[in-house]
Each structure stands twice: as structure tokens, then as C-alpha cells.
Amino acid sequence: MTATESGGSVVRRILLGSQLRRLRESRGITREAAGYSIRASESKISRMELGRVSFKSRDVEDLLTLYGVAEEGEREALLGLAREANVAGWWHSYSDVLPGWFPTYIGLEGAASLIRIYEVQFVHGLLQTEAYAHAVVTRGMGDPSKHCAEVERRVALRLERQKVLVSERAPRFHAVLDEAALRRPYGDASVMRGQLKHLLDVSEQPNVTLQVMPFDFGGHSGETGAFAMLSFPESDLSDVVYMEQLTSALYVDKREEVAQYGRVMERLHEESSDPEASRDLLHRLLQLV
Q: CATH classification of 90-288, choosing from 3.30.870, 3.10.20, 3.30.70, 3.30.390?
């Protein structure tokens, strides 16, 4: 199963959830009442409508009945969506090292047609070499000597994610890396040299645009820190903004809020060095390592 196919199950889950929400609201039914009809809580309905949980066919059938969806063709289309939404993604085998908030992001990343990111602390996961990823993951562990197997699993997961950029239906990937992310050492000099060379290679891929926000620009639009924006080929699926935190992550999909992040991302594209100047900077940094 490709990243796009398995990522599609997450998208279908979100699409089904949004359709169920629209049906519920059109009937004036509260989440509490909907939950009661399927022997579940109001919060379970909320998670279903956000596409954060899998769907049981019986629950979907009961909700469709409650919402007055009687036409067989419409019911079967939504039930088929529920079956497709429950397909396990490739990342399921890494559940032992995945934080609870991350599987949804991996699925969305695999289904996106455009991924835009701004990164400050380190090189973005989709652009990391194996050695650099190992250094980053190790640095984040309390005592890596006690978690060797977990470190290797996390690195393997990161490398598996990167296949999305070279898949048959690879998304366009536009990355803005703060110069700090390129100068901050992870691993020894050979690791950093390898990482900088890899960025130069990846920047030549036709679907990848790489820009660097240089120190000498001064203050800039990315003052709120790192974030990612995902866009999808499905017209009824809105863009999603993702921001990772220490113990959780924030998914933003309200249109007006996403638009604000979109404007910040556009300014970052305008303010950063263009791709050619960014490669020149990478070459200069490579000579300093």
C-alpha cells in the first residue's frame, strides 16, 4: 500500500465526519442526542465528526437513520466511505513509538497534494538524512542508552515517511528553513556535512522548493514558530495547519484561521532567499563545517 493510498483513509475519515456533522446540524440534532442514539458520549460524536476515530458500520447506519437519510444510494455511498476510512495505514506497525496525536498527521501528509512547512529548530523530518535523524531523535530522549530500540524505530518511521516525496503521486513540497536550523549542530561534523549535501540534492527535485530564511533578514513573519500547511486534491477538504507541541499537537482547519497562516506562509516565501540564493547559502555553510 502506498503512502497516498493509506493516507487516503485518513482523508476519507475526515470527509465522512464532516458529512455526518452537516447532516446532524441540518436536522437540528445535538451531539448529545446523536451520541445517545449510538450508545456513545457527546465527545465520541465530536471525535467522529473531526475524523479522529475509526467508524463502526452499525454506528454510521444508526446515525444516518437518525438524520433521515433513507435513500439507498446515499446511504451506501456513506457506508462505503466508512469502510474505506477504516483501512489501516502503513504507520500502524509503528504504533509502539507513535504519540497519539501523530498518526492523523502522517495520514494527511501522505494524502496531501501540497505540503508547505516552516521550520526553525532543525531540518524538517521529510528532509533529514538517516544520520541526522538519529542525532535528532537521540537528543530528544532522556537517556538514549536505555532506548536504543526505540530510537531505531523512530528513525525508521521518519525514513518511511520520506517516501511520500518520491512516490508516484508525490506532492509539491515547499520548505522554508530558518538559517538557525542549518547552523545548529546535530551529530558531528560529518553528520552535518551529509545533511547539507542532502538538502542540496533534494532541492533539485522538480516537486521540491527549498528556501532559507537568512539571519541577515532580521525579524520576519514566522514569529509564531514552526508550522506545516497541508492542501488536498479533494475540493471539499479544507487546508489543515499543523503545529507540534511537547505533549500534543494542534490541528487548525477553520477557514479564517487557516487563511491567516496562509498569509504568513506567503510572506515567508517572499521574505526568504529565493531557491538559487538558498542553495548558495547551503554551499557556503557546507564549507564552514
A: 3.30.870
What is the residue extent of each domain of the chain? 3-85, 90-288
Chain CA centroid to CA 270, Å:
23
Mean pLDDT of 202-218: 92
> CATH fold of 3-85, please?
434 Repressor (Amino-terminal Domain) (1.10.260)
Band of pLDDT at residue 7, cut at 50, 70 and 90:
low
Q: Which range among 8-17, 48-57, 197-206, 213-222 has the greatest average pLDDT? A: 197-206
The strand order across the sheet containing 227-231 reads 208-213, 172-178, 114-119, 227-231, 240-244, 249-252
Q: Which residue has the cell 497519539?
A: 100
Residue 50 has pLDDT above 60, yes or no: yes
- DSSP percent split of the chain into helix, strand, coil, nearest 5: 60, 10, 30
- Whole-model pTM? 0.81
